[in-house]
């Protein structure tokens, strides 16, 4: 493990260079990986340096943290982890008064745990649902084999919340799990600001719109969206419109499968690309567009809905055509992964 005194000197060096505490945390993690000082420790040293105390020696204090990896300390850490597995080593060390390095060794060697990132799993799939996922993927693979232009004719889309503040990241949403258990944990963000709708093809966005505040995306509203989508295809993708062979892909949300919507699709000769229920891992909007678009928005606070819209559009416009092409390539690979997993949810790209 890296010498903490050495790292404290590095923190002081960054402070003198005018780096921020956040920048210093990132640099330490890049240099020392898992052995890097925790965020709270770095901020504490920055606070000390700002006060004029430039010493990198530990300040003497009563009740020095315990450094023993004994049964009592292991029990303390286990109780604290059982209360909340998303606690960091810094938090556990402060709560139990056990040194940082000892907490780390207790977690990894004593309790045989490791930090894993949160992943949202929609639901436990039944046998019929898994079989349906496999059958849909096989059907789509057959379509591609029979028609090499199949993917180029698809317009896929969905709606998503965009947040005024989305604090979650892979690091901050991870938690401690035993190494012998499932390596993911459920996590959710409950924050609502604005709903957006996007439809895209293999080389870029075809149609986008912001849902008015307090407007629910129900069947009649979605019908209007589809009318506007058709107009966008007519104006922006005239060749697809003239050929009349473009396909629509969306998930099985109630608004998408309502009788009035299905009647509209039939009357306008709009063919639907099949999508198995409860399968965001097979929906390009869910595994590519929304995560890619929101990546630059995470951790930022926006004053109002207009600012959310402005920054969302900037993020959307930054996506290059080749990224959309790669998305459709990954979509095909995900069909294979689903088939190989016998319809179970699978790890991403």
Brief descriptors of the model:
Transposase-MT_Hybrid, 14 helices, 349 residues, single chain, alpha/beta, five-stranded mixed beta sheet, RNaseH_sf, 7 strands, Nucleotidyltransferase, domain 5, Mariner Mos1 transposase, Arc Repressor Mutant, subunit A
Task: Provide the CATH architecture of the largest domain.
Answer: 2-Layer Sandwich
List unreliable stretches of 5+ residues.
61-66, 181-192
Walk across the major sheet and give the strand order: 5-4-2-6-7
Helical residue percent?
40-55%
What is the β-strand count? 7
How many helical elements? 14
* Main beta sheet strand tally, sense and closure: 5 strands, mixed
Residue fraction in strands: 5-15%
What's the end-to-end separation, in Å?
32 Å
- Tell me the series of helices and strands, N- to C-terminal: HHHHHHEHEEEEHHEHHEHHH
Q: Could you say which structural class the secondary elements and strand pairing correspond to?
A: alpha/beta
């Amino acid at each position: 493990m890296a010498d903490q005194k050495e790292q404290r000197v590095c923190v002081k060096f960054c402070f003198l260079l005018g780096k921020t505490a956040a920048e210093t945390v990132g640099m330490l993690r890049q240099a020392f990986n898992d052995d890097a000082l925790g965020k709270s420790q770095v901020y504490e040293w920055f606070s000390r340096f700002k006060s004029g105390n430039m010493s990198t020696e530990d300040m003497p204090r009563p009740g020095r943290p315990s450094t023993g990896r004994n049964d009592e300390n292991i029990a303390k850490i286990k109780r604290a982890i059982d209360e909340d597995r998303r606690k960091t080593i810094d938090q556990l060390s402060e709560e139990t008064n056990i040194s940082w390095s000892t907490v780390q060794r207790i977690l990894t060697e004593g309790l045989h745990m490791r930090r894993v990132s949160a992943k949202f799993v929609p639901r436990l799939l039944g046998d019929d649902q898994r079989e349906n996922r496999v059958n849909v993927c096989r059907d789509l693979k057959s379509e591609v084999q029979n028609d090499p232009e199949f993917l180029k004719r698809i317009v896929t889309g969905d709606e998503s919340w965009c947040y005024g503040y989305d604090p979650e990241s892979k690091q901050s949403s991870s938690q401690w799990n035993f190494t012998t258990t499932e390596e993911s944990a459920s996590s959710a963000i409950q924050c609502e600001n604005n709903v957006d709708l996007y439809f895209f093809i293999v080389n870029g966005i075809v149609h986008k719109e912001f849902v008015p505040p307090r407007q629910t995306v129900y069947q009649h509203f979605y019908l209007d969206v589809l009318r506007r989508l058709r107009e966008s295809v007519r104006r922006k993708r005239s060749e697809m419109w003239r050929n009349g062979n473009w396909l629509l892909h969306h998930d099985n949300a109630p608004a998408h499968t309502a009788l009035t919507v299905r009647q509209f699709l039939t009357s306008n000769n709009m063919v639907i690309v099949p999508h198995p229920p409860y399968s965001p891992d097979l929906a390009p909007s869910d595994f590519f567009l929304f995560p890619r678009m929101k990546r630059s928005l995470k951790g930022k606070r926006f004053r109002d809905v207009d600012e959310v819209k402005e920054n969302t559009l900037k993020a959307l416009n930054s996506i290059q055509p080749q990224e959309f092409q790669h998305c459709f390539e990954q979509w095909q690979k995900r069909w294979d992964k689903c088939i190989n997993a016998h319809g179970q949810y699978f790890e991403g790209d």
